Amino acid sequence: MKMNRRVFIKACGVMAGYAVLGANLTKEAVASTMDFVGLRQTSVYTADAKIYKVRKSQDNPMIKKIYDHEHGFLHEGPCGHMSHHLLHTHYNDRSARLAALKNKGFKFNL
């Protein structure tokens, strides 16, 4: 059975819970956690639908002000040099190092 890192951590957490709390308390803890997740999810969706007036970033008045052609900080527009420099990340190619480790016999579950 192949197990990635996330499944391994979840399994270890469940086993530690059983070891410390016992089966009944662990089941109750998982159930209360799932109830909390459900409540949080409902509140996020409700806030998104009813409270927040701006649902798209391009409609946000502050973003419009930043990109304003006369007085905005990024007046060149969304695809200008300054916005690209400030808002985009840079890519570093690490595939050669990964290939070298694979050639040495390391196995990765990515």
From TrEMBL:
<protein>
    <submittedName>
        <fullName>Hydrogenase small subunit</fullName>
    </submittedName>
</protein>
<dbReference type="GO" id="GO:0009055">
    <property type="term" value="F:electron transfer activity"/>
</dbReference>
<feature type="domain" description="Iron hydrogenase small subunit">
    <location>
        <begin position="31"/>
        <end position="95"/>
    </location>
</feature>
<dbReference type="GO" id="GO:0051536">
    <property type="term" value="F:iron-sulfur cluster binding"/>
</dbReference>
<dbReference type="InterPro" id="IPR006311">
    <property type="entry name" value="TAT_signal"/>
</dbReference>
<dbReference type="GO" id="GO:0042597">
    <property type="term" value="C:periplasmic space"/>
</dbReference>
<dbReference type="InterPro" id="IPR008953">
    <property type="entry name" value="Fe_hydrogenase_HydB"/>
</dbReference>
<dbReference type="GO" id="GO:0008901">
    <property type="term" value="F:ferredoxin hydrogenase activity"/>
</dbReference>
<keyword id="KW-0411">Iron-sulfur</keyword>
<keyword id="KW-0479">Metal-binding</keyword>
<dbReference type="GO" id="GO:0005506">
    <property type="term" value="F:iron ion binding"/>
</dbReference>
<dbReference type="InterPro" id="IPR003149">
    <property type="entry name" value="Fe_hydrogenase_ssu"/>
</dbReference>
<dbReference type="Pfam" id="PF02256">
    <property type="entry name" value="Fe_hyd_SSU"/>
</dbReference>
<dbReference type="InterPro" id="IPR036991">
    <property type="entry name" value="Fe_hydrogenase_ssu_sf"/>
</dbReference>
<keyword id="KW-0408">Iron</keyword>
